Amino acid sequence: PGDLGWTLDYATAWAFRRLVRHRPEIADAIARIRRAFSVVSRHTPFHIFPFLDRVLFDNKLGKSVYLVWKAQSLASPGVTRAGEGGSKISIELNRSPFEDPYLGRTGAGPIDVLLDQLIHQMIHAYFLVACGSQSKDEPHDGRLLDGLHFGVLLLAIWDIASRGPDGPLNLIFYAETRRRWSAGVPVFHVQHPLLPPFIALGPQPTTDASPRWTGSSQCTLDNRHIRHSDLRNWQVKSYAIALSTNLEGKGDTVFDYATDNKLEPVHRLQGPPSKEYVELIWEDRRIMVPRERACGFASLKEALEKNDRFELSVPAGCSAQLFALLYNFFLHGRTIAEEDEEKKKKKKKHRGAPAIVAHPRDVKEEEKGVLTHLRLFHLATAMEFSELQHHILDLLWTSFSRTTDPPIEILREVYGDDGPTHVDLHRWGRAFLLRRGRGGRSNY
Ligand SMILES: [Zn+2]
Q1: What is the distance of C-alpha 306 from the center of its chain?
Q2: How far is the CA of 219 from the centre of ligand 1 (A)?
Q3: What is the C-alpha separation between 242 and 11, in angstroms, rounded?
Q4: Among 170-174, 180-184, 289-293, 422-426, which is the least confidently predicted range?
Q5: Could you tell me which residues are beta bridge partners of residue 264?
Q6: How far is the CA of 213 from the centre of ligand 1 (A)?
Q7: How far apart are the CA of 161 and the centre of ligand 1, in A?
Q8: What integer is the mean pLDDT of 410-434?
Q9: Could you tell me which of 102, 221, 300, 369 has the fewest CB atoms within 10 Å of its CB?
């Protein structure tokens, strides 16, 4: 499934800001849940999920996540899995703490235990909706780990929820705390999710520093190396910078450029995973281009990857006709279809500038002709897109043996109004002026 294409830092900052802004509403909602569902039934998680989704995450999870409740090992806080292919993100909650051993049915177990699991897994799911999946076996950036970013949001929610009349909500951060609790070592209501009820370790990470991406949350990994001070530091050092990237400003809609040159709007969450495309911004619309192709152009790679935005503005003045050629080049490495190119070459094998043919004008040909390509060349120059510049020069020298475009306009594009343009284009312009057509008539 699709995702919002946000970075982990931005997703954390966005949610953090939202949590802080909605403190009273969130505190009230959680207090009401704790009172209304003092007895957990088999329907409870499904009742409170949409409620929490709304107050904590602005309904971002709703359509992308489904919930399962099943028995797992007692210590498990559940698991969140990235959807593969077309499937949704799933949250599998652990039903075992709620099984009534005597009656053999669900019914026992405090609401706080359910809230701990649900809020925990909803943070993971939120990161997947906002940032998408990573690639298999990539080093994990933490979006499915109980790491720094996860901790920032968990702590913020805990802080808000614990000020209510029912006292602190027992949100567990450390896997070790959960392990001890299930092993029967008494763990009372922790006063603070980051005050570990165990002897502190040295500052070194105690686990493999970079777990690989598995597509599932890894909530049992030892995360004792993350300290309260790390989370505070993130708020001071990274929060404002992350927010300033304003990835939300990219909007929820991207466009698919269909074969008939029509733009089809697609909601990001219904589109392909964000890691598979970049966005060409053309007249305020964001058009998807396969990331592998776009980042394959060395001259664009840096601009595209800047600030992890994977976007590129098409300069103003790009007509639909030019955009069609530009898009073709991104997709196929050529501006016009191969058979068109061959056809143009076959007419007359040549290397040189085209001869002018006054009649008849072929409007369809002109759409992909010399003048259009000269204009595209200027666009490529403005975009610093050197592969496209080379491709157009190559076409100009080898693929057009004749043109019906108005010669004055061709010269205007080559020489410009304000002095010399590209040196290779000049060379071609000279050849164009010297070129003689049939009967020895020169273009000049
Ligand atoms: Zn987790």
Answers
A1: 13
A2: 4
A3: 8
A4: 180-184
A5: 256
A6: 14
A7: 19
A8: 81
A9: 102
Expressed in angstroms and rounded, the spacing between residue 324 Cα and the centre of ligand 1 is 45
User: What φ, ψ does residue 81 adopt, rounded to 5°?
Assistant: -120, 140
With contact defined as beta carbons under 8 Å apart, do 93 and 78 qualify?
yes
Distance in Å, CA 29 to ligand 1 centroid: 23
Q: Which residue has the higher pLDDT, 108 or 93?
A: 93
CA–CA distance, 279 with 185 (Å, rounded to integer): 53
Ligand 1 centroid distance, CA of 80 (Å) = 8
Domain limits of the chain? 8-243, 332-444
Q: Ligand 1 centre and the CA of 284: distance in Å?
A: 38
Can you tell me which residue has the tokens 């466009």?
Answer: 255
Question: Distance from the CA of 151 to the center of ligand 1, in angstroms?
Answer: 10
This model of the complex carries an ipTM of 0.99
User: Ligand 1: distance of its center to the CA of 135 in Å?
Assistant: 19
> Across the chain, what does the average pLDDT equal?
85
Q: Which residue has the tokens 């475009």?
A: 405
Distance from residue 392's CA to the centre of ligand 1 (Å): 52
**Cβ atoms 64, 112 nearer than 8 A:** no
For residue 366, the surrounding DSSP H or E stretch is: helix 363-366
pLDDT at 145 over 90: yes
C-alpha to C-alpha distance for 178 and 174, rounded to whole angstroms: 7
Beta bridge pairs of residue 94: 70
Tokens of 15: 């949610």
> Ligand 1 centre from 356 Cα, in Å?
69
What is the 260 CA–ligand 1 centroid distance (Å)?
A: 45
How close is the Cα of 372 to the center of ligand 1, in Å? 55
Confidence of residue 311 (pLDDT cuts 50, 70, 90): very high
